[in-house]
Amino acid sequence: MPDRSGRLRAWRNRRRERKSARSAVRRRLTRTGIAVVLVVVIVLGGGIGYAIYRVDSIKRIHVRGLQPVASKGHFKGIEDILLVGSTSRCALKVQNPAFGLCQDGVNGINSDVVMVLRLDGATHKVTLLSFPRDTFIPNARPGQYNRIDSALVYGPSQLVAAIEEDFGVPINHYVVLNFDTFAGVVDALGGVNVYFPDRLYDNYSQLDITKTGCLHLNGFQALALVRARHMYYWTKGQTMDVAAIKAGNYGASGGEYDGSGDIGRIERDHIFLKILASEVAHRGLGNPVTDLKLLDAVAPQLEVDSSFGVGEMLHLVRAFHGIDIGASPETTLPVIEDTQPYIYEGYNYGDLVFPSAPQDQEAIQAFMGPIPGVSLNPASVSVSVLGGIGSPTATTRTAAQLAKLGYHVVGEGEQTPVGPISETSVIYSPGHIAEGQRVLASLSGAVALGVGKTLDGADVTVVTGTDFHVHGGTLPKLTASTTAAPVAARASRITLAALVRTVLVSSSSPGYADNGVLAPPTPAVASVPPYDPRACPSTSHAPAGHGSSHARRTRSSG
């Protein structure tokens, strides 16, 4: 029997061996990266797991306006990560004619995907909020109205500012990927299996699904699917004639047009990203060969803010490893579609959507909890009203309605109408976002929040548009619809004079009328249409056949 000193030496040797092994692991992780699906699944919006990325190959960028993670209070331990899918062709390592070539002038920098991932360290809850790329807001560009996806032209700091200023969602970190990153992840996994109930085609994204069932997609095909927003589908018994669509003869295509645009694309993205995250968890992580492929696909193309440190990432891995991403809530910001090309200050912005009150605040409240400004006493908020449709009578009526709700109305004014249709803007002065949120909660319709100079020194100025109501109700809890909102029929062009006449005649109306040009609000959570793809039944993670779908590698303007 060994003596006590011998047992002690043996114990010390074993301890040194274990410590040496742990140090070797730490050195390996430091040398090749940190194990975290932040680089694979967080940026794809699916969940948290475990993968590896090279610290020295990830691009670090300076992003202004990011908020520190709270160490106390309601938001203690919560991290909101802005996930962006960039459309920059010039950023691609290898130019692909299917996406459009940088040298041919396809050099726009926009954000196809704008999502905020919330990680709650206390509850280990993971939630996702998506913003439709065509949402028209006051501060998309510095002091300028535009689509939210155009903010990225001015850099990531501007996109962060747009989310924080126009929606009141704090951003702690920023992560961006491009086409190459997404396709590379799928290819590193050897492809992904997806179930297609019907045949699908999108000429812009190059999606071309010619058979139904559980099909195997490579990276290019998967990218075509998640980018599709001009999609046709053919149900059983319908003849698929893609040539008719190419020729512009849509009625002879034998299929149906999806028509959901970016909203439908977001819902399909949510479905696919959960499928992808499941595939990563089952086939990638822990497999050294696949892990290295994932690493090579992700790291060189990934950009994160410079404050997103290795230690913080490792902490997130430990805190969220094993989360069931399939049960993670995914919400899309409700919007109102302008069914005609939008004319703003003489410029045609094409098809776009407006924020929808109070549905937007309800969705944000469901995502991040109670909105502090909504509980303010209206008497503590000074408000002015700036008429935006050329009707001083309607401006005065709006001011009176706000005063009746208890707001301290300090002035009225008029500005030149921006066009025949316009959203209402709740503009708050710097430092008064809570007051802006309180006023926004008293309105409904196509209403946007933004920061800027107010009229008569008020905390908040309401710039009236063509579709809003003063209702004054309290903000309810989110009640997600289980069916998609219908899209309004395309209306004929309405003139500014007709709008003014509508307002003056309908003096008893609590707001303005858009004459049917604006569609009903979209739901925060929608059911999946029967023709949309989904996870394979009784999902098998073994690769399926490759012959059932294809995507033509031709130039796309989508």
Oligomer: single chain
Structural class: alpha+beta
Helix content: 25-40%
CA-based shape: globular
Proportion of beta-strand residues? 15-25%
Instruction: Look at the structure and give the mean pLDDT.
Output: 76
Explain what this protein looks like in three dimensions:
By secondary structure, the chain is an alpha+beta fold. The protein contains 12 helices and 27 strands. The strands form 7 sheets. Strands 18, 21, 22, 23, 24, 25, 26 and 27 form an 8-stranded mixed beta sheet that branches. A 7-stranded mixed beta sheet has the order 3-16-9-4-5-6-17, with helices on both faces. A 4-stranded antiparallel beta sheet has the order 12-11-14-15. Strand 24, helix 11 and strand 25 form a beta-alpha-beta unit. Helix 3 packs across helix 4 and helix 3 packs antiparallel against helix 7. The protein starts with a helix and ends in a 53-residue tail after the last helix. The C terminus is likely disordered.
Topology:
Blueprint: H1 4-32, E1 34-35, E2 52-53, E3 59-61, E4 78-86, E5 111-120, E6 125-130, E7 136-141, E8 144-147, H2 156-167, E9 173-177, H3 179-188, E10 192-196, E11 199-202, E12 207-209, E13 213-217, H4 219-227, E14 232-234, H5 242-246, E15 256-257, H6 261-284, H7 288-298, E16 303-305, H8 310-320, E17 330-332, E18 335-337, E19 343-344, E20 347-348, E21 353-357, H9 359-368, E22 382-387, H10 392-404, E23 408-414, E24 424-428, H11 433-440, E25 443-451, E26 460-463, E27 468-470, H12 496-505
Parallel strand pairs: 3-16, 4-9, 6-17, 22-23, 22-26, 24-25
Antiparallel strand pairs: 1-2, 4-5, 5-6, 7-8, 9-16, 10-13, 11-12, 11-14, 14-15, 18-21, 19-20, 21-25, 24-26, 25-27
